[in-house]
């Protein structure tokens, strides 16, 4: 049995006890985890081998603004409202976007994929990644943090990691420097 249910607590109460506000995304993460744990406890979830594999996860990082950013990935998209999420055959890969002064770099994890099966499309504000092979299906469309020059797109794929670099349309303005008083 689950001991936290006897005490009226969630298994995530201690894990998610922060002294700062992590926002709505993290609250959705907590609710989804609690729903999945409840399904596992009741035995109402899908049985192993039915429609799998199931891949669903979250990546959390602190952005340049100092706030946490939560990104979902996998092939089980969250569905608003009642009912279980629908399983798709396509996985959403784990991605990271790094914004530089002169370029934007996108790093995408695509394990088990041949380079020839990756299709990239770069627009002025978006980057689309698609893989459709017998073994794996991935798909994601990213809204880039700044306008870019699609003709400058360069990509490298090595050991399941795709790195895409695109030059910014305009250079990020230099904020300059300022003196800092030391107390």
Report what the structure shows.
The chain has 183 residues and is of the alpha+beta class. It folds into two domains: 88 residues, no CATH class; 82 residues, Immunoglobulin-like. Helices cover 13% and strands 31% of the residues. It has two helices and nine strands. The strands form three sheets. It has a four-stranded antiparallel β-sheet with strand order 3-4-9-8, with no helix packed on it. A three-stranded antiparallel β-sheet has the order 5-6-7, with no helix packed on it. Strands 1-2 form a two-stranded antiparallel sheet. A hairpin with a 3-residue loop joins strand 3 and strand 4. The longest helix is centred in the first third of the chain and has 20 residues. The chain is flat, with a radius of gyration of 20 Å. 11% of the residues are buried. The N terminus is likely disordered.
Kindly report the spatial arrangement of strands forming the biggest sheet. 3-4-9-8
Could you describe the largest sheet, including whether it forms a barrel? 4 strands, antiparallel
User: How would the global form be characterised?
Assistant: flat
* Total helical segments: 2
Q: List segments where confidence is low: pLDDT < 50 over at least 5 consecutive residues.
A: 1-6
Query: What is the radius of gyration?
Result: 20 Å
Number of strands: 9
| Terminal residue distance | 55 Å
Beta content? 25-35%
User: What structural class should be given to the helix and strand makeup?
Assistant: alpha+beta
Order of helices and strands: HHEEEEEEEEE
Whole-number total of structural domains: 2
Mean pLDDT level: 76
């Amino acid at each position: 049995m689950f001991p936290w249910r006897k005490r009226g607590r969630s298994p995530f109460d201690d894990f998610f006890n922060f002294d700062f506000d992590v926002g709505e995304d993290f609250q959705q993460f907590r609710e989804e985890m609690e729903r999945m744990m409840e399904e596992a406890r009741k035995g109402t979830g899908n049985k192993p081998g039915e429609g799998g594999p199931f891949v669903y996860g979250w990546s959390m990082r602190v952005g340049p603004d100092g706030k946490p950013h939560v990104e979902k990935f996998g092939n089980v998209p969250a569905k608003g409202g009642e009912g279980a999420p629908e399983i798709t055959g396509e996985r959403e890969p784990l991605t990271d976007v790094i914004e530089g002064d002169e370029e934007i770099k996108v790093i995408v994890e695509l394990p088990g994929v041949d380079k020839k099966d990756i299709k990239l499309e770069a627009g002025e504000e978006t980057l689309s990644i698609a893989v459709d092979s017998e073994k794996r299906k991935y798909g994601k469309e990213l809204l880039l943090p700044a306008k870019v020059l699609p003709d400058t797109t360069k990509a490298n794929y090595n050991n399941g990691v795709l790195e895409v670099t695109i030059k910014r349309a305009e250079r990020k303005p230099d904020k300059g420097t300022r003196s800092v008083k030391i107390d």
